[in-house]
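#onboarding

Welcome to the new folks! Below is a worked example of what a typical request in this channel looks like: someone posts a single protein sequence, and someone else replies with the predicted structure as tokens. Don't worry about understanding the tokens yet, we'll cover that in week two.

Example request:
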Amino acid sequence: MNKPLEHGQAIVLRLQDYKDNAVLITVLVKHIGQLRLIGKGQLKPTSKLAPICQPFNTLLIGYIRAHDSSLGQLIQASCLDSRVDLTFDLYQSIYGQIITELIEKITFDMDYAHVDLYDFTNDALNDLFEDNIHDVMMFYLLHLMDALGYRIDIDLPDENRNILYRFNIEAGRIEPFVEDGSNHPTLSLMQLYTIMAFLNASSYHDPLLDEFDPIDPALIMDMLHFIHYHLGFELKSARLLQSL
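Example response:
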């Protein structure tokens, strides 16, 4: 029996050479989750799909696969958002790699539960073109950790040291949260001020906020260490960032 052609929006996460001029394309498909699709003939110079089936791009794809299989074959694709220009800026390229590597590691095959991850990942990759890329990356990491249910423990003076803070996406601010007894690494009070300045939290004001510029890349490294501590894996792309 012929397999039905399925369609969906997909973010290209990674490419690997396969065999016989084919490429194995890891994608995050909206409403489906992570899939691996074989792109036949995409290593040939005459391939029409190769120029658009590139990391960071968002595609409208048609593919076939066995029932409930996470491996299929790419049949057709058209580009919704081309982001190959990210590769021409070093920081944009590394941040794009961090985003796609993170999503590949934290999502599972056909993981229907995290459609929201697709949406704000797609938005972040778009924003890397237009906005302050360090701010975009910091907001993305905070949003991602919040979506996964992690909280940030702020290193405050002794009398307040047990207060736990939660990043509230809807309100756009960090709020006090009930102590859960977890052994979280801490961010310094200065880092909290920097995050607050970035978020422009109207409900919280301190004269120190006026002294901070947009997010420092070093703060992004702190967040990547925070993620490494909680999720238990190291990102190869983060090593590139650390080497700059």
